[in-house]
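Incident log, structure service

09:12 report received: a user says their structure output differs between two submissions of the same chain.
09:20 pulled the input from the user's history:
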Amino acid sequence: MNEKVQKALGLHSSGFNCCQAVIGAFCGQYGMDELLAMKLASGFGGGLRCGEVCGAVSGAVMVVGLRYGQCAATDQESKKRCYEVTSAFMEEFLKRKGTVRCRDLLGYDIRDTEARTRFPGRQKEVCPNAIETAVLILEEMGF
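09:34 re-ran on a clean worker, output below:
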């Protein structure tokens, strides 16, 4: 297992969500303080807490922004590049996992407490794989 995957999975197993785990594995490389990254990403786990875009995917898109993001309104080239790389990441994750939605990956909506009871441990099965996939795709893309 490579270093970034190991770091991301370690963050996740210590109690951070999928988004925090992915951005946490890369933030230092792009000059972002890990504490700030953890705070920024804290609301993105569980598909924005409503089963939408997987937190690992959101974290990866944040990493794309750290590297290619537009920081001046007039810098349309950075904006275009960031969008292109984001789209390429999204397409590859979709290709590998079949979806980018948390509820589809898990097989239930995390807001549904009854479903969570019916599928104990499901997040521990699904989330590490989604995190690993996101990190590996980023690395394959040169991050």
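09:41 both user submissions now match this output. Likely a transient worker issue. Closing.
09:42 reviewer note: The longest helix spans residues 76-97. The two ends are 17 Å apart (CA to CA).
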